[in-house]
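Q: What structure does this chain adopt?
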Amino acid sequence: MTRFPDYLTVDYTDGKGESPDDYETLPSKMEKAVEVTQTALEEYENPAVMWTGGKDSTLTLYFVQQVADQYGHDLPPAVFIDHYQHFDELMNFVGRWADEWDLEVIYARNNDVGSYVDEHSLEPGDDIPVDALSEHNQHHIRSILEYEEETFPFLLDTYVGNHLLKTVALNGALEAYDIDGVISGVRWDEQEARADETFFSPRHDPDIYPPHDRAQAILQFEEADVWDAFWYYLVPDTVDGFPEEGYVPQSYDDLPDGLTHEDIPISPKYFEGFRSLGSEVSTEKSDQDPAWLQDLENTTERAGRAQDKEDLMERLRDLGYM
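A:
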């Protein structure tokens, strides 16, 4: 069997059978993240980093920035999936830090669905007729998802909505920009469907998605590790005036003197108590405390999200979802 593509020498078994427990300290987790990122930037001809504006993808982007700078690689573009149901604060956050970090951002959108929504002034939950969409979208709905209803709701966290607004949009961007390696921020502990992932994961079936690989630099991080990496490394490294030894805010307004939320590369929604930023429509805050102060070990990270999509995660991932 011919490897995809021929110029790659990545090890698709790296991480097989492992878990976060195999990386006992934060430095060991970060060392592995740097290793995976460096390999990805060296091996792929047209890499990109997935960036949602959330904590995991922003931490992944930090590793990409650090490795690119240290080893002289070009900073790859960031792919942002715009599913039309983001928090306004998150969209503002992405625009703010894309400018600050001089990022090229590829906005992956299902323009066919978006145009219909705009033209008919739809709100989340309103129905979209299947036959009003393009042949491409109808093919995905009827032939791939085998969905038989005449309409589907304009909602992100449903089977059809998630696939069209995220997966189809992402695959369109991968094809348009000929991306061969996607550096993503998924984690082993995040969901059961991701527990068997490896650091380099092939997506080579051309009948499902544009052939590419996923390079998954922070698989070994748990939720608490992500926040520790933010407060003790990412934020001190990227924010002028932030204490070099790290500082962990204890409330929404608890920031070092002279700094505001706009100065910190962490979405204000996390300060408000959200632990996941799926969509404005279907995501609720988990607690009143900032995300990093909540009971991360004994509560579910995505408890504030609608469950339709989460219950179908394995099937959606088979179709190209992250």
